[in-house]
Specification:
Helix content: 25-40%
Strand order of the largest sheet: 1-2-8-5-4-3-9-10-11
Shape: globular
CATH architecture of the domain at 5-175: 3-Layer(aba) Sandwich
Distance between the termini: 31 Å
Number of helices: 8
Structural class: alpha/beta
Number of strands: 11
Length: 250
């Protein structure tokens, strides 16, 4: 059975991590981390290194006033890619801000060959550090960016069990198309934040019937996909809460 170990970050922050090699290890690994399903789950995917500081500042309220209150109120677990970059960094920082309501479990799912553990050596030149504001990490096989995509979906599905789950897409690059496809394959509603850039904007355009990337057009055909504006955190909160509570969404 996979055995968790502590990751010690600066400022006395500690998270628990587990290393997986095969999908059938996942249930035991989650139990070992104390993450017992079923749990309401919010998956957050999207932009990482492609987000500039100005984007992070602009999108911060979306996390602080939109995502975090819903996650906290519903006692949900959040799942993302776990690195100190882009939307994952924003989610971690919002979680650590007591004003936004901290304390929920934030699980980063990362391919071990793409990230640098605290105190460790980078496995590749562009390896990303893990985010210190996450509570748990599930490290999975892979040396390339995107190797974690299928595992994020697996972790979310295993954690949710028969509880509702939803995916929020903020910005995003090429890998985001795969992330959204896997969420839809799992029957998970997807909220694309229109105005956050790149993949999310392509998906929002496709939903409006405007010209868009053909991959976005194909994904937008699902009735599980809808768009919410980036400048309306309360609107995101209402739509996300509905996706996680209304019987028709489950």
């Amino acid at each position: 059975m996979p055995t968790p170990w502590p990751l010690h970050f600066e400022d006395d922050r500690t998270a628990w991590a587990v290393q997986l090699e095969e999908p059938d290890e996942l249930p035991a690994a989650l139990a070992a981390l104390g993450l017992h399903p079923p749990r309401t789950v919010v998956v957050v995917v999207g932009g990482a290194g492609g987000l500039k500081d100005a984007d992070l500042d602009r999108l911060g309220p979306l996390f602080e006033s939109g995502l975090i209150p819903v996650i906290t109120r519903l006692g949900a677990v959040a799942v993302d890619g776990g690195t100190w970059s882009g939307v994952m960094r924003l989610l971690g920082e919002a979680r650590s801000d007591g004003r936004a309501g901290a304390g929920f479990h934030l699980v980063g799912v990362a391919a071990s060959g793409t990230v640098t553990l605290p105190g460790g050596q980078p496995p590749r030149d562009d390896a990303a550090p893990l985010d210190p504001n996450h509570s748990h990490f599930v490290l999975v096989p892979g040396k390339d960016w995107g190797a974690e995509s299928s595992w994020i979906a697996r972790v979310a599905t295993a954690l949710a069990g028969d509880r509702p789950s939803a995916t929020v897409l903020v910005n995003g690059g090429e890998i985001a198309y795969a992330d959204i496809g896997r969420s839809l394959d799992a029957g998970r509603p997807v909220l694309a934040v229109a105005g956050s850039g790149r993949t999310a904007d392509e998906l929002a355009a496709a939903l409006r019937g405007d010209p868009a990337d053909e991959r976005a057009v194909a994904l937008a055909e699902s009735k599980l996909v809808e768009a919410v504006p980036a400048d309306d955190p309360s609107g995101l909160a209402r739509t996300l809460a509905a996706a996680l509570t209304e019987p028709r969404r489950r």
